[in-house]
Amino acid sequence: MSEAGGALGCGSPVPQRAPWNLVAAATALYLVSATSVWTAGATPMNREEKQKLGNQVLEMFDHAYGNYMEHAYPADELMPLTCRGRVRGQEPSRGDVDDALGKFSLTLIDSLDTLVVLNKTKEFEDAVRKVLRDVNLDNDVVVSVFETNIRVLGGLLGGHSLAIMLKEKGEYMQWYKDELLQMAKQLGYKLLPAFNTTSGLPYPRINLKFGIRKPEARTGTETDTCTACAGTLILEFAALSRFTGATIFEEYARKALDFLWEKRQRSSNLVGVTINIHTGDWVRKDSGVGAGIDSYYEYLLKAYVLLGDDSFLERFNTHYDAIMRYISQPPLLLDVHIHKPMLNARTWMDALLAFFPGLQVLKGDIRPAIETHEMLYQVIKKHNFLPEAFTTDFRVHWAQHPLRPEFAESTYFLYKATGDPYYLEVGKTLIENLNKYARVPCGFAAMKDVRTGSHEDRMDSFFLAEMFKYLYLLFADKEDIIFDIEDYIFTTEAHLLPLWLSTTNQRVSKKNTTSEYTELDDSNFDWTCPNTQILFPNDPLYAQSIREPLKNVVDKSCPRGIIRVEESFRSGAKPPLRARDFMATNPEHLEILKKMGVSLIHLKDGRVQLVQHAIQAASSIDAEDGLRFMQEMIELSSQQQKEQQLPPRAVQIVSHPFFGRVVLTAGPAQFGLDLSKHKETRGFVASSKPYNGCSELTNPEAVMGKIALIQRGQCMFAEKARNIQNAGAIGGIVIDDNEGSSSDTAPLFQMAGDGKDTDDIKIPMLFLFSKEGSIILDAIREYEEVEVLLSDKAKDRAAILKGKMIPSYIINSNPEMENEEQPSSENDSQNQSAEQIISISQAVDLVDQEAPEESSLSSHSDSSPADTDNAASISPAEQTLNPMENQEPTSLDGECTDLDNQPQEQSETEEDSNPNVSWGKKVQPIDSILADWNEDIEAFEMMEKDEL
Ligand code: DMJ
Predict the structure, then answer these.
(1) How far is CA 276 from CA 144, 165, 557, 629, in A?
(2) I want to staple 201 with a disulfide (CB 3.0 to 4.6 A). Which of 192, 277, 363, 654 is the partner?
(3) Least confident of 72-86, 689-703, 727-741, 877-891
(4) Ligand 1 pocket test target in 2, 404, 468 with most atoms within 8 Å of CB
């Protein structure tokens, strides 16, 4: 996600026709902030230190870009662990993620304008020549229309914008004759067939050579697309039209936006996540500001900034009003249902929403931007990176982190708006974490699991397009950049488009905007385009005062729902029954269930089924409580299923030349030494003979005191473990025998025992897929002696390297892991297992509905241990465990219920802004509850399958 270059708020307190004033306003604010005298708060950073950090960003960019150019180009992306190019079709498919790869040297095109921002003009000139010489846009490959638009079309247009700027300056690019623009136009025409639908919404995918629907195209049968996919075209398409004079692109993008606007849910003014491109029906009716919707909102506001068309601002303001009313629960942003916007649709947030504070800066709404950004920063401090999704009580929901730039983007814009040096410190932390945890010898690797610190063989092009741009700009002074950044707007991929396009080739007819927009409250700047300078009256401590109350929001978080319990205490009412507290043997609980219209059916097999008939509830409020209780049960159930699984482990290569920088994701074993409870195991590796480890080893002298490598297959995992243990191995790594398998593409699993007692196995055993395993095998071939560390989480490299002879650059980039979580104490683990026993007895599964107005849940009274045993005995060698989910202790309930510790002021604010707090006061008619019931069940099922 990204922003307008300097557009901090929209300029003046009256609607803008031409966006030129933005530039001046933004610049002025920047100067005021930068020269403010600081009396307290974060210490100002002097120019020298800022330059040092800027230089560090340049060095990091060189490391990423240099390795891509040297080892991957002309492939689309670099695979930083295996140090080669990712070529689509030659690597195992990663599903939708691969739709960005069109065999068009994606990373090079996405990096073009970054080179100019980072003052690498010579390299830019070389890169443009390479694009013109090597890139083919006519490949027989099916690509995502959205990704191709934002990364490739955007990249070519950003490159063109800066090429003509440089040419005009008279030194570089003197030979340039709009060749990038011609390529952009060619690509634009290739994307147009995607719009051949009655709605005008584009198909999600297109074949670059054959277009759509023809048999050779292998695409065109899709019915759905995401809102962001259809609503994130206008900046690139309008720029293409205005640069070239061919109006068709802007017309198509406008038509898609007009359709989405028409389809918004009329009472909430929200849009869903996915829409049917033929009928316009919402397919997924949940709504947030993150995955699937994010850049639709971004482009409405930026389209106004770039094109000066009021209708886009009016639409944005209408949606923004709805977002702040329903989704924003500062500091959280929580998805809701479009038709029931007071009902949260999930209890977790995704990492893509981290762009939103930046967009709020552009809107001029600084306070919630500061709050959400601060919350996100605390999550980052806890896990080093923002996990792909995290719960409302800040536990990891999806543990990957593909080096996304959204948080850096918001940090940059908040710094520009506030001038608060705190945001420079935030940027410094981002740089340190990237170097400490993601930097590998051949580039930067995405995090596979932020909890273990393991890597994925992936460096997405947006890392170069966005991350380095925002980090560099954060520390740069005006004179560090060779052009005026305020003259440009950033696309969602951080490509630069010149603001002068607003007055060029304005031939596309604009929509007549009169009475169709919601009436908004002007006192809240809804109809104006506020200047952050006015909102933010020159007070350097303003941002700090907003952050202060949120200081410990993550560490002291309460599981969601507690707020409402507190409220009930305060009002004297009995708190509603929470699913996690429910006990089927407690008569009081059964009474509450009855009031809520929930009945308990004891099934013959010992399970208990919960069924809700909203109509049998004592009141509509009780029915609503019942609905919520059932929803909590569903969520609890899926959470518990995940929690019964062991988390993944890490194999870290610590010997030369890896020095702990390569961390492989490994599957755990249900037997042997538990690495989460014991110190890690470190040793040199040796292949066992026979390699499958299925009989007594013939090379015990080679594996004695070492970590034995064994191939998967032909006998039980436990048998292999016993054989290597008998030969004196101190640990074992089982490597998959399916060639090409990888944890990038296959679900990781835990190795089960053999159905017998496995207490005799004392050594730790881990599993690696073939691709990860071959990194170790290749290392042995090349370096002979390879030492690894088996652990539950990647270890601090400084500690690993203690006492070893190592190059100084490695030590310098590996300071202590200050943020590493402490291993839980014995008490903690006892508490955890106690909790688990309770939760096991409450496990529930969703079963089919019998009637539309009923929901059914079945509860296993004591199912989990038996389930585990069954699974293990059915398929001892291959028990699936995916996704590996959060095993962290939950937060402190005791603290949460201590009302005296809650500042009154804060509670009042929560009450005002948090729809959940006032839940008890809202009365929804029974009819509408019944009518919506089906949709709720569908939505929750969908959410479970949900992917970013
Ligand atoms: C980028 O490609 C764009 O910012 C897009 O809008 C969504 N996010 C990715 C990076 O995370």
Answers:
(1) 16, 41, 38, 31
(2) 277
(3) 877-891
(4) 404
